[in-house]
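Worked example 3 (structure in, sequence out).
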């Protein structure tokens, strides 16, 4: 359903309040030619209503010659901000950046966050923003699981489809996404609702089986057949299956970079308003499909870069893959059982 301009401004005002924007704050809206015009205008007006000091940083378009498709996650690393120190300093001067063009996985974003500036990414269609409008309870839910993830030293994943995956934890931090940016140096994405960490280097091991109905991003497709990934010492070494496995092999091989096969972040979805079925109702050029990343009880793993937490893999190919019906364990504690969240936060109001 369509969202009116007035409603969109009200939603932004709600999220900016959760992000602690007031008359003492400065807000930069980062945009490019492909930014949603309504989103940019709503962010500006909401920040003005809260009496914040507001300004726009507009950057030219950026096209990587090796990129395929229009999804914002289909190419990682360089952005329109790369090498533009003047624009970076303008962004670092803000207390909060509303990113409508996508800086994720860029070194510049990490440099900005280290100054204490907060970043809120907002690139989904307005109706998706409305359905997953964040609440204070979302943060409580994610934070409860984050306490478990921060203490854990191993993560294990099993499924009836055949997944049997293990990784050691502790080398990299746990990251929370709950839909607003309320703490210094915090990056978040509206909408979201999940958490994750990265395996210790060279410890991810085993098999992950993508079953029928599991989701591959940025392809934005539901798998119609099983795809089996064999993983050794942190890297995918073999991809088995039929046509879809061949397609995945060819896509990853296209980048001619062994780092694309590295296992990146691993975690699970905690947003009850996100829907596994939602992706099928949108065009592939409509946003990033955050429903797929955040739906309650998924096991979400990714491949490729890990520079956002100090790792060394700066590689352009980034896959996010959401598996259903998995058992996820932190050490010996079950946090997801057959796709149902069973960690302590499951008792919170959904």
């Amino acid at each position: 359903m369509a969202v009116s301009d007035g409603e969109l401004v009200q939603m932004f005002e709600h999220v900016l309040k959760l992000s602690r924007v007031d008359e003492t704050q400065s807000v930069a809206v980062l945009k490019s030619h492909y930014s949603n015009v309504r989103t940019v205008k709503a962010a500006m007006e909401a920040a003005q209503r809260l009496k914040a000091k507001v300004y726009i940083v507009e950057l030219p378009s950026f096209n990587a010659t090796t990129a395929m498709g229009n999804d914002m996650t289909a190419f990682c690393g360089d952005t329109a901000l790369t090498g533009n120190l003047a624009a970076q300093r303008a962004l670092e001067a803000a207390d909060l950046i509303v990113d409508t063009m996508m800086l994720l996985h860029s070194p510049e974003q990490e440099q900005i966050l280290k100054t204490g500036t907060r970043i809120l990414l907002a690139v989904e269609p307005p109706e998706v923003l409305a359905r997953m409008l964040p609440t204070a309870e979302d943060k409580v839910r994610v934070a409860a699981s984050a306490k478990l993830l921060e203490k854990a030293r191993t993560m294990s994943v099993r499924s009836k489809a055949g997944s049997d995956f293990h990784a050691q934890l502790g080398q990299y931090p746990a990251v929370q996404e709950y839909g607003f940016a309320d703490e210094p140096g915090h990056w978040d994405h509206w909408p979201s609702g999940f958490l994750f960490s990265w395996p210790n280097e060279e410890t991810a091991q085993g098999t992950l089986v993508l079953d029928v109905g599991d989701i591959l991003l940025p392809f934005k497709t539901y798998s119609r057949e099983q795809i089996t990934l064999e993983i050794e010492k942190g890297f995918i070494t073999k991809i088995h299956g039929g046509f879809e496995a061949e397609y995945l092999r060819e896509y990853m091989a296209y980048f001619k970079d062994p780092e694309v096969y590295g296992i990146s972040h691993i975690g699970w979805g905690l947003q009850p308003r996100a829907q596994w079925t939602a992706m099928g109702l949108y065009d592939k050029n409509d946003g990033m499909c955050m429903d797929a990343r955040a739906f309650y009880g998924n096991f979400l793993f990714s491949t490729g870069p890990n520079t956002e937490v100090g790792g060394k893999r700066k590689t352009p190919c980034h896959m996010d893959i959401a598996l259903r019906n998995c058992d996820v364990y932190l050490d010996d504690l079950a946090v997801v059982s057959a796709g149902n969240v069973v960690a302590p936060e499951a008792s919170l109001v959904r």
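Notes: The chain has eight helices and 20 strands. The helical segments are 5-18, 37-49, 85-92, 107-114, 126-131, 136-151, 243-254, 290-294.
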